[in-house]
Amino acid sequence: MILVDKNIKERSTEIFVKNYNEASVNAISYDLHIKEIVGNSEYLKEYVLKPGEIVFIKTAEKIHMPDDLMGRIGEKNSRMRQGLCVSGPHYYPGHETYLYLRVQNISAGTIKIKEEDTIAQILFEELKEIPEQTYDNQPGASFNNEDEYLGMARYKDEYEKRMERIKDAGRDLDEKINHIYANILTLMGIFVSIFSLLMVNFTNITNKNMNGRYIATINVSLGIVIALFLGLIILLVNNKEIKKSTFIIYICIIIVLIIALFFLLG
């Protein structure tokens, strides 16, 4: 059952710790007002929200939810039409705190908010029974008695770990994509290399003026260029997967090809 105006007035001393004003009582809710806007390192009395921007506000009202009630945040029609989207958590029985609400400008223009502005409303729902454990007796109730904005409180480490796992998954995906690209480039390089060797040898064989030493020199020279090209692809794209032994073998092949070239040219 939702409390109506006369119920809210009758139970106001139970619900409100600070800054209750009977004029803010509506038919089935109570209007909440801005005390401060939560900045990066300070509390502001006024702020101009850019399109799409999100801030948190601290209400002037401080509440203590009776054990048989729950508080539910609702938007104000006037603020919604202005282009503000205001949201907040449910306030459980036993919860004592100032209210911290998330405010987003979803309009195409700027919107100014300031101290004492009506920003949202709270509805009070009567529970069927009193819970076995109210919020103030809940182990690790991070946001009870939140006089100053606590951010994510004890949840910070947990969410940061989740974000780090997401980042690690992103890095793994990037590495797999790079590995695929490296394999594709390597295969293309091998294909082009084989095609080039075949074309050079076919051209040289059909030319009767070419001797075997000249053909061998051309092939070794082309082999060095191809080896350097493939090595460059692997080093630039797939360098994390190269083993030390593989790199040593690769260098030895280059050295052997260079020695062979000098021998042919000598």
Write up this protein.
By secondary structure, this protein is of the alpha+beta class. The protein is built from 6 helices and 10 strands, in the order H-H-E-E-E-E-E-E-H-E-E-E-E-H-H-H. Strands 1, 2, 3, 5, 6, 7, 8 and 10 form an 8-stranded antiparallel β-sheet that branches. Strands 4-9 form a two-stranded antiparallel sheet. A hairpin with an 8-residue loop joins strand 7 and strand 8. Helix 5 runs antiparallel to helix 6. The chain is rod-shaped, with a radius of gyration of 36 Å. It starts with a helix and ends with a helix. The model has no long low-confidence stretch (mean pLDDT 81).
Backbone shape:
rod-shaped
Q: Largest beta sheet, briefly?
A: 8 strands, antiparallel
Strand segment count: 10
Classify the helix fraction into a percent range. 40-55%
Task: Please name the defining characteristics of this protein.
266 residues, 8-stranded antiparallel sheet, two-stranded antiparallel ribbon, 6 helices, rod-shaped
